[in-house]
Write a structure and sequence with these properties.
Layout (H helix, E strand, L loop, with lengths): L1 E9 L1 E2 L2 E7 L7 E3 L2 E3 L6 H13 L2 E15 L12 E14 L10 E8 L8 E2 H12 L15 E2 L1
Length: 157
């Protein structure tokens, strides 16, 4: 089994959310939240700000911790045959963009970053992380934990 610790930014502004389109070299495209892997010895708080800057070109500040999500993805649902079961532990933060203009990630897998109307999100081919982050932002559970988020539409892990 593989394990990944990651930090994600939920950036909301005027009924829009900042989403990043992940377009890996092998093809396909999925909308996700800005964020990613926490590096060795890095604090998730610092990682989310680094990831926002790298992926979107924007500067940001963390407003608050929204919660933590632990998601198990069986090998059968992984994007390529032969990959093991996977657990993703995501730390979600409410983040406010303070500067910059969204742009593609130079030399990276993020093809674009876009302020997306919340009403348009259900129709997007997106990572389940988007639904988890939006549920945490909407519900603001005192424990920082939401029950498994029911996801609909074209979801990918």
């Amino acid at each position: 089994m593989s394990l990944r610790l990651a930090a994600y930014a939920v950036c909301l502004r005027e009924n829009r959310v900042l989403l990043a389109r992940h377009a890996p070299p092998g093809g396909g495209s999925t909308w996700t939240l800005p964020g990613g892997r926490v590096e060795h010895a890095e604090d998730p708080f610092d990682a989310v700000l680094r990831e926002v800057a790298e992926e979107t070109g924007c500067t940001a500040v963390v407003e608050r911790l929204l919660g933590v999500d632990s998601r198990f993805i069986p090998a059968a649902e992984r994007p390529a045959p032969g990959l093991p079961d996977h657990q993703n532990v995501g730390v979600f933060y409410e983040v406010r963009i303070t500067g910059g203009t969204p742009r593609p990630e130079p030399g990276g897998a993020i093809a674009e970053s876009v302020w997306t109307p919340l009403a348009d999100v259900p129709a997007l081919v997106r990572s389940s992380l988007v639904d988890v982050g939006l549920a945490l932002a909407r519900e603001r559970p005192p424990t920082g934990h939401v029950a498994p988020v029911p996801v609909g539409g074209p979801i990918r892990h």
